[in-house]
Amino acid sequence: MMQLWRDYDPGEFYDELMYDQHQPRHFSYKLLDYLKSMRKEAFEQRIVDSELEILERGITFTVYSDAGNIDRAWPFDIIPRIIPKREWDCTEKGLVQRIRALNMFINDIYNEGNFIRDGLIPEEVVLQSKGYRPQCKGMQPAHGVWAHICGSDLVRDDNGTMYVLEDNLRVPSGVAYMLENRKTTKRVLPELFKLLHISPVNDYPSHLSAMLASLAPDIAQPNMVLLTPGIYNSAYFEHAALAQQAGLTLLEGADLTVANDGYVYMKTIHGLERVDVIYRRIDDDFIDPLVFREDSTLGIPGIMQAWRDGKVAIANAPGCGVADDKVIYAYVPAMIRYYLNEEPLLPNVPTWMCRDPDQLQHVLDHLPELVVKPANESGGYGMLVGPHSSEEKIEEFRQLLIADPNNYIAQPTLKLSVSPTSCGDHIAPRHVDLRPFILSGKDNYVTPGGLTRVALVKGSLVVNSSQGGGSKDTWIVDDSYFGGLS
């Protein structure tokens, strides 16, 4: 194995497992010492075993392309990423703080509107968001929570500082793949779990089920379902896996109906059966053809009225996407101060608002150095990464910014942290991010770690699975017996 590591060098980037080219961090020493002590052939066999595990369990992800939809095996690297528990405890507090403020903001926007009235955000910024739904005005979901499942993307810079890159509040995906990554690691490297005290993640489905049940507090055993767009959705594997593990009935829109009494029912061979909670994995636009897109065949006519009347709970609530907007993202620190009277525990990435003329000019003057993002795209689409773009692409974005500055933000190109990754005949540093998942209902729960995504192409910053990124198991390791943090 030493020959695979011989030329490993993180260079100028912060490495999640290494101080430098030769020195492991104190909390990753046992892991790296074990891996380096393996015979090369044994390590390569573990990689083969992991690939077979993924194929045998049918863990897939659909990539959309011009050539058609490609259903491919989930890309997985067997070298895990480690975060020490004491650091993670602080991160977890910051994530809970953030989602509390975001839910208070959403509730405020659709009710009193104090954040706008007190001048903390221009009204037009909210109203122009594609996630803003005037049909949700006046709603008060259970516990004041709109975003019940959130996947916040975290990145670390070259100084080791953890930032929130964005918040995914509509139908965030990835948690089932996090669970499968852990199962795969346990099966191909079981001995490592005897070396280190690693926080478990396999209780997520039970936490998800309990959170959903808390949305129907007057029902002892609510009937809960997962609403999927169907087998052709890119994350259908996740929908099926979560439904099975959390005890939810997996349904499509055609399996549900709103009856004359205003309640939602699922169609069964025994007749109609009332549904109390819906974990929906379809976007607002498609959820109710009577309210949003008339041509939608994925949703249920009348479900919005049933939700407004309190006859069914929906997670995540319609309209929560207003806070999933990359322009509104810039106002989250102000939300935390306003609603919680606290300082943010997790910082935003520094952000320029292109709607401001002075900030727009700065962005235009430094476009080749910056990352530019549209307000409502996801998955790494529709954005500019200046240092990795052609002159033609930069000029194209210059014109887009001039034509519609309100739709864009810009951020510095962070030197994202790297983690050792198996790359065929060698181990190499590859850029990573992290998507932990936060559940909010009566209580809050944060996954210990989350889904680490990896940019498998050398030098690339694109970690999104839909664009060829990979993944790693993420370990939160109790480092108290190692003596200190680094």
From TrEMBL:
Signal sequence coordinates: none
Stored InterPro entries: ATP-dep_Glu-Cys_Ligase-2, CP_ATPgrasp_2, UCP005522
Gene3D superfamilies linked to this entry: 3.30.1490.270, 3.40.50.11290
Domain Circularly permuted ATP-grasp type as annotated: residue spans: 80-455
Protein known as: Circularly permuted ATP-grasp type 2 domain-containing protein
Species of provenance: Methylophaga muralis
Lineage, top ranks: Bacteria, Pseudomonadati, Pseudomonadota, Gammaproteobacteria, Thiotrichales
